[in-house]
Amino acid sequence: MFCEEILLYLTFSMNLKFQKNNRRMFSPNKEELIKEIRDLESEQQQLHSKIVLLNSRKDDLFEISSILKSNIANKCNQQIEWLSNEKTYISQRSIEDEEKIKKEFDERLKELTKEKCDLERKLEAESEFVARCLKDRLLKSYNRTLELRSKLFEKSEDILTNLNDETPSDNKTNGNKSNDEKEKKIKIAQNQQAAYNLAKKIAEAHREIEGYYAKNARLQKILAELRSRQKEKSFFENHPAFTQRRNSCFQ
Question: What average pLDDT score do residues 83-87 get?
Answer without folding.
Answer: 85
